[in-house]
Write a structure and sequence with these properties.
The structure is a single chain. This protein is mostly helical and 53 residues long. The chain has helices at 2-26, 40-48.
Length: 53
């Protein structure tokens, strides 16, 4: 079961990263738009840290 959780987590992280890139491309010429950033390392650190910390 843990393998499915790991795969699902990877898919969700990839989807969020692609969504961020898509938003950045779509709004590249929008005045005042600040590009979003998705850092996988931050998400990974949250995933492996203890839940109760």
């Amino acid at each position: 079961m843990a393998n499915y959780s790991l795969m699902l987590s990877g898919l969700l992280n990839t989807a969020k990263a692609l969504d961020t890139v898509g938003n950045n491309i779509a709004n590249a010429n929008t005045v005042g738009y600040k590009a979003g950033e998705y850092v996988f390392a931050d998400q990974f650190a949250r995933a492996v840290s203890p839940r109760d910390a």
